Amino acid sequence: MAAHYLTHISARGLAELTPNGPLQKCAKRIKQLRSRSYSCSSHLGGHRSTRQQPRFRDAYTVKQEEARHAANIARSAETKARRAVLVGDPIRGAPHLTPFILSFDFAKDPTIAPLAPAAEQQADEIRDISAEADAKASMGRDSNAIVPAIKSPEDAAAMDRASVSQNGQLNHFFTADDLDTSLNHSERLAAPYVSSHRPDVDVAREAWDQDRHKLQHAVRREAVSRILAPENASSHQRTKINTQRCIDKFGRHNTDGIFEHQRASNSGSQGVLGQLRQRAGPDTGSSEVQVAILTAKIRTLVSEFEGRSRNDKVNKRNLRLMLHRRQKLLKYFEKKDRGGPRWLHLLETLGLTKATWKGEINVQ
């Protein structure tokens, strides 16, 4: 409005104004704008920017710089790999799994040797002989034809007990002693009747029935043993078995006598063993037991994510919670018993490294 107003001011009016007043300055600025030629160029009174020309570099210098860059990248990758081996993985721990960690997949003691091939061959012979006995019984052949028995019924029973007891903890929380007692009781109940009036007894038929009963019972024992084997259990049952194994392995109701005796012998005080607190039951709440149970559950979830369940968002969150809970327990246990026998036993058995309780844990 001021510029529009000043354009209509007469020359006489401008002359009457103060020479250095504000209106006189505005009039001079208006005259300058009228005499200026407008342009669409963006560089009004400024210097035009020019692109800097690249300096000359010979091929030898370029090759030297590329070689140094490649050497730095290789050295960085080697250092990162060495650090990863020393620190370990925050989820799995050490790169080489311990036998106790590998035993979580089958929920049985790794120190017990598997069933020998000879025992497996003996079990196959039992099944073949039992099938032959059933076929002959259904065809109604001569009762004098006795089916060849196995080498020794006592050896077969011992073989079955060995196959049952090699797993330690069985499925559905059965023990080897409970299973052996139940199978022996069923063998006595299903045994063929032996007549007390001997003159009227067919000896050949009685021997046939006894041999056939032993063979059938051996097959049934093997079938029940395989049904209750931990390697044939569901994931939920294996987790329960592994939890009980962790309690038995790291529970202080079993380790107090071992580690406290070592500590007393090292310190020279013999009164420590007499001061041990008597426990009312199995130790399920100590830090080492909880860390071992969480490690078993974490391995189960990690093995699931490596397969077809990699997009399971709910279990991924559960895995993240378990990892951070284990991290907190390890930090607390390190503060309480760092360098002690329990701490070293826990790290060696579970294969845990510093990455599991130090630093950030990311679950991709």
Write the layout of secondary structure elements.
Blueprint: H1 2-7, H2 11-16, H3 22-35, H4 59-87, H5 99-102, H6 117-139, H7 153-165, H8 176-189, H9 203-227, H10 235-250, H11 252-267, H12 287-305, H13 313-337, H14 341-350
Helix pairs in contact: 6-9, 7-9, 10-12, 12-13
Major sheet: none
Distance between the termini: 65 Å
The H/E string reads HHHHHHHHHHHHHH
The radius of gyration is: 43 Å
Provide mean pLDDT, rounded.
Answer: 76
Number of helices: 14
Low-confidence regions: 1-7, 113-119, 139-153, 156-167
Taken from the alpha-carbon principal axes, the silhouette is elongated
Structural class: mainly alpha
Number of strands: 0
Percent of residues in beta strands:
under 5%
- Helix percent reads 55-70%
Characterise this structure:
This protein is an all-alpha fold. It starts with a helix and ends in a 14-residue tail after the last helix. Helix 12 runs antiparallel to helix 13 (313-337). The model is unreliable at 1-7, 113-119, 139-153 and 156-167 (pLDDT under 50). 60% of the residues lie in helices and 0% in strands.
In a nutshell, what does this entry contain?
The chain has 14 helices and no strands. It is mainly α and 364 residues long.
Key words describing this protein structure:
364 residues; single chain; disordered N terminus; 14 helices; mainly alpha
